[in-house]
């Protein structure tokens, strides 16, 4: 059983990290600004489903295997960069963007994009490899179960943070409807920025 002291330390550390704006927050904000609150909320749910994928992979030991293989890590990293680049190009070249308003996407597609953005996010992978294992104690029981507990805790904290960004971006997006022309490239630049951040994320 995880000791209360260890869990409290993990909780404190996770809260601090979650409060720091990251790529997922940028993605959710872009969706909320361009398509409204519903899209922001759906993208937040997709992002956290992506976190759940990382939790399952870490518990199964797959994340460790990937971390030990420079080839597998590089494939995941550049697949993420390529996908974000595709989203940026689509945002810049869509017909509706040329008309002065962002292109709306079906919510199921927004959800799927949120999942992929986080699944291919090396920073999330590195969190589960570099930080989370430090809190796993063999004497506290099954390491896999501990990873699941810690991972779900992080996912819950992330969801709370993501939903806050989604609500804020959705509200701001409605207020800025008249400024659609100046906002039409918001999503594209955010996706492009996410790709650059991913490209420069190292294995240290």
TrEMBL record:
Its main location: membrane. Keywords: Cell membrane, Membrane, Transmembrane, Transmembrane helix. The keyword Electron transport does not apply. It is a multi-pass membrane protein. GO terms for cellular component: plasma membrane. The chain crosses the membrane at residues 6-27, 39-64, 70-89, 110-135, 147-171, 183-202. InterPro entries: LeuE-type. One of its GO terms (molecular function) is amino acid transmembrane transporter activity. This is RhtB family transporter. It is found in: Cell membrane. Coiled coil: none annotated. The keyword Cell membrane applies. PANTHER family: ARGININE EXPORTER PROTEIN ARGO, ARGININE EXPORTER PROTEIN ARGO-RELATED.
